[in-house]
Design a protein that fits this description.
CATH architecture of the largest domain: 2-Layer Sandwich
Radius of gyration: 19 Å
Largest sheet: 5 strands, antiparallel
Number of domains: 2
Order of helices and strands: EHEEHEEHEEHEE
Number of strands: 9
Number of helices: 4
């Protein structure tokens, strides 16, 4: 089984998220990541759903999602044909003796330090899952105090578009 990324344009109305995510749960699939937000048109939202499953089952789910009333368009985003990103905020223990090393690691990953206290640093990082996991591996020895992730967002590359 592999991870699939499904992108859907939906009407920005109450209950839409519940109906779409309910389809996945009724089929017994756990959603690995779910991100929803308005598009350039405030009446339309884009849902990015990462789910692990077999190809035939994902194809069936996509067909069923496409039949829902509030769904405008739905498609699986294939690996090389799309751009995938996630944002993390990570707060680490970093006193004056550890701070410089943590700042160097953040710089290597082109991350931003967004908060500093006498005993902690909070770093914001954007990238694909592999990059962010690499950053977290290097920050773990400092002591990760808190971590927040946005979930996956994705768009098709170039002129390819999921359109209305």
């Amino acid at each position: 089984m592999k991870q699939h990324v499904v992108s859907a344009l939906v009407e920005n109305r109450p209950g839409t998220l519940s109906r779409v995510s309910g389809l996945f749960s009724r089929r017994g699939y756990n959603i690995d990541s779910l991100t929803v937000g308005e598009t350039e048109n405030p009446s339309i939202s884009r849902m990015t759903i990462a789910v692990t499953g077999d190809d035939p089952v994902i194809e069936q789910i996509i067909k069923q999602v496409g039949k829902l009333v509030d769904v405008i368009a739905v498609r699986e985003l294939e690996g090389a044909s799309c751009i995938r990103r996630e944002i993390i905020l990570v707060k680490i223990a970093a006193d004056e003796h550890k701070r410089q090393g943590a700042l160097e690691i953040a710089g290597i990953f082109r991350s931003r330090v967004i908060d500093v206290s006498p005993s902690t640093i909070t770093i914001e990082a954007t990238g694909d899952r592999e990059k962010l996991e690499g950053l977290l591996i290097l920050l773990r020895p400092y002591g990760i105090l808190e971590l927040a992730r946005t979930g996956l967002v994705a768009l098709e590359r170039g002129s390819l578009m999921l359109s209305v």
